[in-house]
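ok so i was messing around last nite and threw this chain in just to see what happens. nothing serious, just curious
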Amino acid sequence: MYLERLYIEKIRNLETVVMKNLQPFNVLYGINGSGKTSVLEAIHILATGRSFRTHMPKYYIQHQQPHGIIFAQMHSDKIGIQKFSSGEQRIKINGDRLATQRQLAQLLPLQYIDPLSIEIIDHGAKPRRQLLDWLMFHVEPSFYQTWLQYARALKQRNSMLKQHKHLSITDIQPWNNLLAEYGEQLHLQRVAIFMQWQVFFEQEVKNLLPDLTLKLEYIAGFQTEFGLAQVLEQQHGKDCERKYTEHGPHRADLRLKTAQGSASDVLSRGQKKLLIVALKLSQIAMLHASNKETVVLLDDVTAELDYAAQQRLLARLHTLGSQVFLTTLDDAIVKQHLHDLCISYQIFNVHAGVVQIQPSTPLEHE
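result:
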């Protein structure tokens, strides 16, 4: 579902922004520091409840202002979020107040593609696990509740481990049982979705990195041949020493491998950038196959990818039916790409926090 109109108030240097006549592709251009990325950040906050820059609302809400507002008009829905510097928030869909962000996130699937984010490949399991769980959230209806129940059981089990020095297996068994029950469900859901995702991933890798053979592997976070209940029992003594739960789906990971070894060790920086794009595109493609379109944020991708890769990326997003918001210092090159690809677009100039729509030109709507 496309955004048709966007309203932003008191976010970063954006005092009041009204963006109308939004198209499948929307180009924000201006000098560094003008507020281009802040527009993307506002859309990200609307869709996910959080910024991709900071976890603290007080840092993206304008100084000495109590709150910031982001509102969007879609074809049949009006959605909005009010973020307070205190950390509180108010969320509405069609005027109705919501208790959580989940409904907004389901209504507005969003991907932030930043080729600089190679930490997904290079650093720790968490960002890779989050990548998988984003996909799970949007394509597996029962995932969220299963994940929520597992997270609650894990929190309680860890709390017991921290509070009690000598904890018997009998004392912790109720939480072991819950953790094992929901953990096994979570694992099976992840396996099923991962198997589907692999097909889409392989196709995107062929398009973007045709000379490489890349394999995506799912690591469960526990020894699945024994089952989570048995693993928790076997690890009881060590978990008591560590005072936290070491094994389970919360330790799951994705491994990216080439024929020569781990992608993090073998690939060049440029190849890693394209691999990040392939991962995100494969998820967008999988949602598209389920009749779910994704809003995509591209931050200065023209500065990070070569000309051919830029055009392949924009063409693929167009094919997948995504609505795209992209920032650039060079609007001419983006216009040329979109003109060559016959993609409908709108241009916005951003200067000192002011966003202005640019008049149509023959090139834009030829």
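not much to say yet. The chain has a mean pLDDT of 93.
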